[in-house]
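Assemble and predict.
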Amino acid sequence: MIYRLISQLGQSVRNWLEELGLAIRTLIAILLAGLGLWRRPRLVTTQIHFIGNYSLVIILVSGLFVGFVLAYQGYYTLNRYGSESALGLLVALSLARELGPVVTALLFAGRAGTSLTAEIGLMKAGEQLAAMEMMAVNPLQRVLAPRFIAGLIAMPILAALFTAMGVFGGYLVGVQLIGVDEGSFWSQMQGGVDLWEDIGNGIIKSIVFGFAATFIAIYQGYQAQPTPEGVSRATTRTVVLSSLMVLWLDFVLTALMFK
Amino acid sequence: MQNNKSLDFWVGLFVLLGAGAFVFLALRVGNMSSMSLSDSYTVSAKFDNIGGLKPRAPIKSAGVVVGRIGDITFDDHTFQAIVSMQMDARYKFPKDSSAKILTSGLLGEQYIGIEAGGDVNLLASGDKIKMTQSAIVLENLISQFLFSKAAEGKDDAK
């Protein structure tokens, strides 16, 4: 009984290590394959268009509404202490430091990550990847690497747009609707938000999240069972894994950056 | 080919939008516009107590930001805090100017206020501001108030 439990534990650790090793090997192979892409930038721009431009609407609208809600809730709390002039600071800090990168990464995993997984998984199920290899085209370089690099580029841009849109939403509700003084809204924000400490760290976070979310998406697609069921399972796993990964990485990065 | 051109346009627009958002965050939300001190000279001052003064807090004179605080260190010979101040090179102050630690608003951040003196010589890089006034610590203020009340009470009893 105990013998079986221990050997099960050993097996799961071994499986986990094997999975991790495979993932890291794939990552290195993708990065190496990506080096050759500077000669064919069109492959990457097509993917930026697919990942970035098509995610734009959902990111901008979510940013706007998160800004609206932050302004309302922030005003509700700050008003009790008579310091509603700090509303701009509250909205900007919470967006730049936390909500911008995290919510964008979660939406990114849901919007772009799933479609990447499904696309690559279906290519695998339809044996298109195998056909490419037959024609001496490296699918890592032709299919995976452009998507990975496009995700790395698109994610920080999307996060910055989300944050900017959220601040604008906070301004609309806070200043135009509730009537917080416009001057103190902006000046407290500028006085309290540090370029490197707050905005810079937010950008670092969004780059790390983009790396994690995109890699999980394409890896899950690449390793999917080549059946309809396998692709659907891989897509689900992409959302679950990358959301958990983003939240965990967020905790680690915040703890490291916190002084 | 036409299709590729329009795709390039949209991707370019996306990247431009992103760059615009970064600039907006840096200039409008962050403090890039107020911290870009291209030329500055550093002067230092010793304070008995700096209260809650933080590095990169503003230095103001007549309410206008004229510099930023560099780093704050402790001198274990005089047991005072040494504050280095990066002053905007556009603004010159007399050598006998005085520095005070002030608070903006009731709960606001602390900053250094500079009051100009009457010397003809100007502060230069590496100079020290001699006349300083420490931050007002609420506990000291209350204890002073209590002591003076207690002293009054003793006088009344006589």
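The first strand of chain B starts at residue 40 and ends at 47.
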